[in-house]
Amino acid sequence: MSSDDNIAIRVSNLSKCYQIYNAPRDRLKQFVLPRLHRLAGRAPKQYFREFWALRDVSFEIKKGETVGIIGRNGSGKSTLLQMICGTLNPTSGSIQTNGRIAALLELGSGFNPEFTGRENVYMNASVLGLRNEEIDTRFEDIVTFSDIGDFIEQPVKTYSSGMMVRLAFAVIAHVDAEILVVDEALAVGDAFFTQKCMRFLRNFMKTGTILFVSHDTGAVVNLCNKAVLLNHGEVVEIGTPKDVIEHYLATVYESNQEVDGVIADVAKVTTSQFQRSTDYRDMREAMINASNLRNDIEVFQFEPDQKGFGTGDAKIVSVRLLDPSGAPLSWVVGGEDVILEIRCSAHKDILRPIVGFQFKDRLGQVIFCDNTYFIYQNKLQLAEAGTEIIARFEFRLPVLPSGDYSISPAIAEGTQEEHIQHHWLHDAMMVRVHSTSVCLGLIGVPMKKLSLETQ
Predict the structure, then answer these.
(1) What is the mean pLDDT of residues 311-324?
(2) Cα separation of 365 and 242, whole Å?
(3) Measured between alpha carbons, how far is 183 from 284 in angstroms, rounded to an integer?
(4) CA distance 213 to 66
């Protein structure tokens, strides 16, 4: 175990068991009859069944870390957070925290619906340890951050879900907490407020500790430096967000391998080629490519032995980047037209095959992705066992910041909403950007025209 001085949260062998009763009368029986049985010297009977929401969960979070908790619905995430925040008692195990905790859990938790927004601000902030005079000095900032205007004087029961989250987050953002616990409640906010919250979280990360629960794997990768995967109340993996999310995606697909479809007129799969017109080139291209700013990208060979998952009824056998004439590339320049070719082999008959890819940065954050479904959604196709399935995606490669990137291909069967994942291959091909061009964000977009005027 690490030194206690450097630990923000320590969870040790934590378990939570609920007693599930089939009928209300069983609850009364459990309260009365076991006592009578013990008085009579008989073994007491149990009138409930046990449900373990968490079982023997242990991990540590150091001060200054941002940790993501991920898992499917019912995996125990909310139960864990409630026990860390002290609103739920564990059945066994212990939790140690070091610092003031502010939490945004279930929608409206901690609010009295009959109180006004103002009254709830004072009540919530006082529960989190602020004195009334401290709340007085921060009240206007809280109202401004929440952006709910005159509704601050109205009962909370008249608020929309978005307004409720705005006010709740505004309070926890102004109580000088050292540990923030944020659940999925942010998902109901509008885009502008969510961005405001993310800016606050990024600033808080410089000095504080965050425990972040979300189904948005991109947000977990982007914000967190560690992740914990829960499944059926147990810790499955603790590690980097990229590795943990890959494991999470595999478990999601493996437990949901169902597809609807009726075999009708069947056409064999043929190679698909997408013709996309190139209307323009970046007006700065000649100048950039003649300088040390040229976006040189090294392309590495396909790695078939990378980690992956799927049924194995179809396998990815090749991933290549080609130039517009079909020649393989070992180097490419950002902003140029390329073809991403994915070849798969069918080991069984595959009805309605879907081939796709994700282009990810070094953290595992998806920069862009695509698949073949929408082009062929109205054509019932069959790839017979023993045939090859070839997908080609022709596009202009974005201008990219320096660093390493990966391509993760996949082949599935079914529809966009319901499909069987036959082979998903993590990081099957790597590319390395050796120099940065005119790129100030995640990707650079070629500019058709730039102008600057003074009048």
Answers:
(1) 94
(2) 8
(3) 45
(4) 11
What sign does the dihedral 326-330-334-340 (CA atoms) show? positive
- Residue 421 and residue 301 share a domain: yes
Q: How confident is the model at residue 436 (pLDDT cuts 50, 70, 90)?
A: low
Q: Does residue 450 belong to any structural domain of this protein?
A: no
Rounded alpha-carbon distances, angstroms, from residue 9 to 31, 165, 358: 36, 25, 35
E-strand ranges in 304-387 read 308-309, 314-322, 331-333, 337-346, 350-351, 353-361, 366-371, 381-383
Last residue within a domain, chosen from 189, 221, 254: 254
Q: Tell me how far apart the alpha carbons of residues 182 and 194 are, in angstroms, rounded to a whole number.
A: 12
Question: How many domains does the chain fold into?
Answer: 2
The CA distance from 148 to 140, in Å, is: 12
Q: Are residues 109 and 213 in the same domain?
A: yes
Q: Is the dihedral of CA 130, 136, 137, 141 positive or negative?
A: positive
pLDDT at 266: 43
Q: What is the pLDDT of residues 319-330, one digit of tens each?
A: 999 999 999 999
Task: Evaluate whether residue 26 is within a structural domain.
Answer: yes
**What is the three-state SS of 267-318?**
EECCCECCCCCCCCCCCCHHHHHCCCCCCEEEECCCCCCCCEECCCCEEEEE
* Per-residue pLDDT tens digits for 72-81: 888 899 899 9
What's this model's pTM, rounded to 2 decimal places? Answer: 0.73
Tell me 428's DSSP state: -
Residue that is written with structure tokens 């794997």 in the block: 217
Of 81, 86, 83, 65, which Cα lies nearest the Cα of 178?
65
Question: Helical H runs in 147-178?
Answer: 161-172
Q: Which long-range contacts (CB under 8 A, 24 or more apart) does 132-141 make?
A: 138/174, 141/174
Nearest alpha-carbon partner for 118 in 129, 132, 101? 132
